[in-house]
Amino acid sequence: MSANIRWLVTVASIAAAAPLTSTAYELAECAGIVQRWGGSSVIVRAASTSFPADSVWRTALQETVDGWNRNPSQMSISLRFGDDSVSFGNFENEIWFTSDDTILDGAPARASMIYSCTGSMLESDVFIDSRISLTTSSAKTAQTGYGGGARSFQTLAGHELGHTLGLLHTRNTYNIMGQDARHVHTNGSAARFYPGEDAGNGIVALYGVRSSIQDLGVVHWRHSGWSGEYSSHSRTRMFNSAGQELASDTINGERHYRVTRGQTVKVEFSFENNGAARQRSADVGFYISTNDYITTGDWRIGGRTLDLGRNTISTIQSTVTVLNDLNTTVTCPNSTLRGCYWVGAVVDEDGSLTEINEANNATYVGIRVLP
Q: Of 148, 248, 293, 344, which has the maximum CB count within 10 A?
């Protein structure tokens, strides 16, 4: 390997600690020079033994790449299957499962990058531990972020492919390059991988903006701290009018905040602009639903307008009032407790923005209405 070529290894991890207040993506650099791919597409080859035809792993990897390709930059990933010979140092970008601890070094996955210190990415390989418990299911109950027993393959692979594009770990904002298992969009029973605003902003910084891509989203996750290089993420919350977090019950692995009929509360959500342009007047509606799948067909309890730029994730509290006529005896799913409802947020409520992803505009926080 010539003297002007360097290699860097990054790993996936989960952790938690105290919060930072600033927000920023991190880019791969050498001697102060940002490293990037030339052109508008990077080829990633998937090992034939790891991602065989008609397998759930192949489908899940394609879903992950499709998620990245909805980013607002001029760069995309071109995924190619059927690679029969994978190795590090062959100047091809590859992804495969392995049980080789000399490669993984105790990590659930690892991305290795080779680049020149003149600014050019030359190779990026992704290794995933074949022995850990992974799920390709979008069912939230299967995933560790919701009390399930397996880590989402899509979020794990999505994190590592972020390295392939030139991103490093991030600890100071809610980001897929931090605690990836808790970086998902959820509405109803499905929790799905997505790159997110901050990672998308980093890719735009590397490769320029694709002005045709517009997308707004809302999630019930927030940045809550860090450990080492990695951000940690926790669920958004609900507060009383004095700003004190409400007491809650855990039902089916998720919190339901205790409220009373007619109570004024502050509900917290994280809003993201995953598109190319600032949205100065993004309409948001707030709803109460009898289930955890939020739509504009639920009971509307308020609304507001947000100015959402493409540079700062907006985790904010909004004041709403619980409806007076909710049934306190309604049975909570799979529980002996009663009074369960869900407070939801819908961004781009009127559907006026043409978005590349219309499936990420709503999410929820659980409540339990007391007698």
A: 344
Where are the alpha helices (H) located in 166-261, listed in sequence order?
197-207
Average pLDDT estimate for 325-348? 97
Q: What's the rounded mean pLDDT across residues 141-160? A: 97
| pLDDT tens-digit map of 118-145 | 999 999 999 999 999 999 999 999 999 9
Max Cα distance, the chain (Å)? 73
Distance CA 253, CA 12 (A): 24
Going by C-alpha positions, the residue among 278, 297, 305, 310 that lies closest to residue 344 is 297
How are the residues of the chain apportioned to helix, strand and coil, as percentages rounded to the nearest 5?
A: 15, 45, 45
Check: CB of residue 334 under 8 Å from CB of residue 253: no
Q: Name residue 206's amino acid.
A: L
Pick the CATH number of 5-209 from 3.40.50.620, 3.40.390.10, 1.10.10.10, 3.40.30.50: 3.40.390.10
pLDDT of 320 strictly over 80: yes
Q: State pLDDT tens for residues 38-79.
A: 999 999 999 999 999 999 999 999 999 999 999 999 999 999
Distance CA 44, CA 73 (A): 18
Prediction pTM value: 0.94
pLDDT of residue 215: 98
Six-digit token string for 135 = 């799920």
Closest by Cα among 92, 104, 99 to 9 = 104
Q: Which residue has the tokens 């951000």?
A: 231
HSE toward the beta carbon, residue 211, CA cutoff 13 A: 0
Write down the residue that tokens 């790993």 correspond to: 11
Tell me if domain 5-209 and domain 234-370 are identical in fold.
Answer: no
Predicted confidence (pLDDT) at residue 20 exceeds the cutoff of 90: no
Domain 234-370 matching CATH 2.40.50.140: the answer reads: no
Beta-strand relationship, 340-347 and 362-370:
antiparallel
